Fold this sequence. Notes:
The structure holds 3 protein chains of 3 kinds. Chain B is mainly alpha-helical. Chain B has 19 helices and no strands. Chain C is an all-alpha fold. The two termini of chain C are about 15 Å apart. Classes of the chains: A alpha/beta, B mainly alpha, C mainly alpha.
Amino acid sequence: MIVRRIAAWIAASALSVGAFLAIQNLLVPKYMSGIYEGALIGEYYAEPRGHDIVFIGDCEVYETVSPVTLWEEYGITSYIRGGPQQLIWHSYYLLKDALKYEKPRVAVFNILSMQYDEPQSEAYNRLNLDGMRLSPEKLEAASVGAMPGESALSYAFPILRFHDRWSELTDDDFTYYASRRHVSVNGYVMRADIKPVGRIPEGRKLADYSFGDKAMEYLDKMRELCEENGVELMLMKAPTIWPHWYDQWEEQTLAYAEKYGLIYVNLLADAEKAGIDFATDTYDAGLHTNVYGAEKCASYLGQIMRDSYGLPDRRGEPETAALWAGKTDYYNKLKSVQEKEFAETGKISTLVLGE
Amino acid sequence: MFFTSEIFIIFLAAVFVGYYTVFRRWQWQFLLAANFVFYALSDAGNLVYIAAAIVTTYFASRRMARLNAELESWAAANPGAAKAETRERRAAVKAKRRVWLVLCLIVNLSALAVVKYAGFAIATANGVRAAFGAEPFQMIDFVLPMGISFFTFQSLGYIIDAYRGKAAKGESFFRLAAFVSFFPQLIQGPISRYSDLSGTLFAPHAFSPEDFREGLFRALCGFFKKLVVADRLFAAIRALTADPAEYPGVYVLVAMIAYAVTLYCDFTGGIDIAIGVARALGVRVAENFNRPFYSVSIADYWRRWHITMGTWFRDYLFYPLSLSKPTQKLLKLTKKTFGPKLGMRVPVYISTAFVWFATGLWHGASWNFIAWGVANGLVIIISQELSPVFAVVTKRFGLGSRTWWTAFRVVRTFWLMSFLRSFDIYANVGATFRAYVSVFSGFGASVARLSAEGLAALGLYTADYVVVGVSVALMALGGHLIHARGFRVSNLPFAGRFALFAAVCLAIVVFGAYGFGYDANQFIYNRF
Amino acid sequence: MDELQTIINILLRLHPDEDFENNAALIDGSVLDSFDILSIIAEINDEFGVSIPPNEIIPENFNSAAALADLVHRLDD
């Protein structure tokens, strides 16, 4: 009798939880059209593990380096765990999360986000964290970066944030209910259009140029995390002309890198050396590089990383080579589709093949 | 602490577990501790007010009990005493007890008056001074201690009952404290009497699956009403009533209907949570509502809406006031002047007006509420005056049992109450009257506008109105099943019960009007 | 018995059509409201010189003419 009771309770509870999760999955946004960037973080988990390099940082990082070029020229495998306006604490926890699944040789952090010491926007919080698997890291990141009014509970149970979408469900919500499609190549988002740099705006005068305490705290944490895990931390700055990268910020970064013996590559300063041409290598007048710029940066960075960290050339490994052959194929196809669109219409409309 | 907050759920879970784990003898003491924790988590800085209410009430009631005890022991020691002397002693004791009553009343009412109404009084005075070009007084702003309107009334009810010899003699301090601070009642009521609540509150309670189930389901329905319906419509009401000039005519009627639904769902929802939580603890609390939208008259309405407040004001203000010596003297005077029939009515109407003034004032510190209270009182007096006329008409045309006549009265009462309630939602008394006027003056144009624009401009989507409509229909169905068909959750088989609970929970999570960015469903995306 | 009849007369003056001899649910059945109660108290005061205090205004005392008669009797001591 009691056993039947308990069994009934367990069965009923399981059914209820199942129904709850099923409905939650329906209501969360899928990011399969429009705002593709929301799907970036979640794509990581399906990838085969064992990357040599993991990149973390904001949109600069997922537009500046082409993983396919790193593979083709150096046989280096990489993944970009970047997200739109990813803040340093997001990056820290995303790295920590990644380290549960693999141990890369190098972690590369784009230091643009050092300028932000406070949570900036609820929308970007969600775009960077919703894709994470439920874990202590996800909840810590949510509570550390919470905007006023946000609760970590709504990251554990996203239905609490997105329940209102019941009246705005789209076809995508049903099509991509069970599985999503890839919007990136190992975290890189392809842009083959060109819009040259025009006027370079002056940087505004700031009241205080020092990096905030919270940002420095998380940079230290990132460095320590890497040390504990035997991962090399490398800092980079993308070759973008806006937001303005102040000299004072550059000094602080150089000082930090020197203090801890970290390699820091400023692609903006090294733009000429890397062969970057601001007339052809950007798609939005200098805010982000396009695929041509990304390939040049990858080429330039790749050599530094291979030489400094002794990264192996995996082009001889049959499985890896086969995997990357497929990626390279997709990458080139997408590139030619976009180039055609740009040539014919002056803009691109295909961000993901097969839509 | 709001009912609709994450911390309340966690607090409740902890209370339920603790309550049914401790020894049954100690359950009410556990509740007292829980009440304290509830108050500390919500409003720790203002604990002093509820503590003061309990202490002063206890102290005064002990004094009264002591005086009674002394009288009893004197009477026992002097059985052959003369009747005159006994009467004299009794009167003296009564006078002394009255002194303690009055002291307790003054202390508690002053605390309530200062904290709740000081700002209002000063603002009003400043308005008058400004008219005369005088300097305004310094504004004092008090943060209202949580539940002060409710726990003050429970304490005052207790001391008045003690004076009348109704409450048990000299209750223990902790029992009194547990009664005054009972946490489910602190937020929206109901207002309990000590004699009604003490039995069930202090009795030991074995865990009863039925009580727990019924109580929890009722509380769940309360959450549904609040989160899905009431909170959803607030946005529309805010938009409609911000400026009566912007939404005149038929829009005012729309606002009235929306507010009737919202207020009903918010208030009865909160009471459902209070009564449901208490029931889940095995404590039976008095009902506060009885299908108010079925009222046939305004007097009937006030016997169905916020019942415990109405009976409190009736028993502790209206009757004492109407039967007091000054009022009786006034009665003799008016009977002589106006004759017995008319003279009878004058003091009663004065009491009525005063009680409704107090009721309005109790609701809130603003002229809106006072106007609302006085208006209610006026309508009641007028309908009392007209009742013989109505009685004649009803008899003459045999309307008594006709369904359409009852329907007419129900609809009439609904609109009457909706008009009166408008004082709650417009910014001030002037705005409310402008809204009333615009119903008649701006009607035609507004109807045209409404049929063109629809209700979309108010910040709610069509889907929202569908949710409200379906929810109201479900509530009506549920009400019918419970009242007319005796439906109880416990009547369902296990699977049915579980499914019902799960379905209501899910409905609240999905359709509730809560959460970050409830207003802004869109993401703001910049190219960064 | 005299008391009972006087009380019934008082009640009839308020509601001429009710059956006060047999009805025992005057409060519970909403036959009398607060205004009626005050009138009754005033009239009882006039007729019998008895003051009904507020704490005796309970349904048990007002539900029937007989209950009222008992109340008056009790308070007259």
